[in-house]
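Repro:
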Amino acid sequence: MKYEYILFDADDTLLDFQDCEEHALHALLLYAGGKASDDEKTVYKKINAEWWRRFEHGEATKAQLTVGRFADTCDALGLNCDPNDLSGYYIDRLGEGAKLVDGAMEVCRALYGKCRMYIITNGIQKVQESRWNRTAIKDMFDGLFISEAIGYQKPRPEYFDYVFSAIGNPPKDRVLIVGDSLTSDIAGGIAAGTDTCWVNPTGKSAGNLSPTYIIKSLTECLDIIL
């Protein structure tokens, strides 16, 4: 096997974050006094995406993100709520979502025992630990690296330096990073000197980045790894 260490992103790579977010957001908007309409959800998702962009670029802290997105959502939707309370409620609901993406179980079963697998994620520690511990694949993995616990987020080089040190500094050509995010997984992996596999089901453009591999479905990574 060419790769002995596989670093998987969590959300929308192995875990179905869209399903998790939908249930948590629906519950949150009703809790906040909204209608949980598609329009309200769209407003939140745009605000949330911008906060995560700022976080990934070092323009906001995780604490600012987790509260700021709800403060901005309340302002945009005219909801009179405490954003700190909404943040806590939302995080609790997110922590309940452990659905896997299609093919995740197949991939993990096929790779288990043949290589060492790790999770690399920018998610909130409380949420990601709760979700991960509920999954049916957690015992197949050798480690879980959460940005909030490390103190740096993908694609920061410090994050990847920490991960590589923790897994024993293997040769970079024996490592493959698999993820759906160009800005965190692929950009971070390229900067770290590893091969990357971009999970790109909708055929988006990679822009000025050059992933080593581009796949449409997660199961295609087995043809690369095995």
